[in-house]
Amino acid sequence: MSLGQHLIELRNRLFKAVLAVLVAAVGGWFLTPFVLDSLRAPVTQLARVGGHTAELNFPMITGAFDLRLQIAITIGVVIASPVWLYQVWAFIVPALVRREKQYVFGFLGTAIPLFFAGCWFGWYVLPHIVGILGSFVSSEDTSIVDAKAYYDFVIKLIVAVGIAFVLPVFLVLLNFVGVLSAAAIIKSWRIAVICILVFCAIVTPSADVVSMFLLAIPMVVLYVAACLVTWLHDRRLAKRQSKTDEEYGL
Q1: CA-closest candidate to residue 164, choices 206, 120, 129
Q2: d(Cα 124, Cα 104) in Å, to the nearest integer?
Q3: Residue 46 in contact with residue 130, Cβ under 8 Å?
Q4: Per-residue pLDDT tens for 148-203?
Q5: pTM of this prediction?
Q6: Measured between alpha carbons, how far is 36 from 21 in angstroms, rounded to an integer?
Q7: pLDDT per residue over 49-69, tens digit each?
Q8: Which residues face 145 on adjacent strands?
Q9: How far apart are CA 179 and CA 192, in angstroms?
């Protein structure tokens, strides 16, 4: 196709992706009360444990509506993820050979569950993080949490952990397409562990060491799993190449 045809196809696929997100966001609007209750739960628990008042605050008259709208869009993006991921890859896949297409679909089939698993893990450690941070508030004080800032903090944490869980899959994909060898990935394990610890220290509060290690442990396990998969893949390729050399007398 010409450049103009590629741009037209890109426009059509972006339109379908945005339309799917908007339709899912309409349904997500009706789920916002349940999401708000879940977001409010760690703050409510903080008030019970700390013995002081802790509540979400909307400083602007439009704050509650804006937050619900933002939550609805976020839900829409999550619900419509199979659609917009398909549209993105459908635009890229025609430029790939058959073998690379299989790798891409394998990547999507692994990355999406890992992304949701990472998001769930971020949500799992959220109450612990809120509890650690809220413990510094004395019983004589009141903790008034800005709802918008709190939601942004939660989303950044969940999305960051979700993306981090997907990164080892990129290593495997780069190995399968011949960009990185298993030896190079395994050799860099010290750098990988340091990067994981630094990342976990950034996305979690500096005072919450427990949450940092709770996030770091599964990420290290996923990195080790990626090393194992790439090692097995390179070993299989080496055996196949050795067999081919023997057949041709090389």
Answers
A1: 120
A2: 30
A3: yes
A4: 888 888 887 887 888 788 888 888 877 887 778 888 888 888 998 998 888 888 87
A5: 0.72
A6: 20
A7: 666 677 888 888 888 898 899
A8: 56
A9: 18
The closest alpha carbon to 229, from 95, 120, 114, belongs to 114
> Would you state the pLDDT for residue 25?
92
Q: Count other Cβ atoms within 10 Å, centred on residue 45.
A: 15
- In angstroms, the CA 137 to CA 53 distance is 10
**Which amino acid appears at position 178 of this protein?**
G
Q: 3-state SS of the chain?
A: CCHHHHHHHHHHHHHHHHHHHHHHHHHHHCCHHHHHHHHHHHHHHHHHHHCCCEEEECCCCCHHHHHHHHHHHHHHHHHCHHHHHHHHHHHHHHHCCHHHHHHHHHHHHHHHHHHHHHHHHHHHHHHHHHHHHHCCCCCCCCEEEEHHHHHHHHHHHHHHHHHHHHHHHHHHHHHHCCCCCHHHHHHCHHHHHHHHHHHHHHHCCCCCHHHHHHHHHHHHHHHHHHHHHHHHHHHHHHHHHHHHHHHCCC
- Name the residue with tokens 């196949």: 240
Distance from C-alpha of 13 to C-alpha of 90, rounded to nearest angstrom = 9
Phi, psi torsion values for 204, nearest 5 degrees: -110, 155
Tell me the two tokens of residue 129: 């993080």
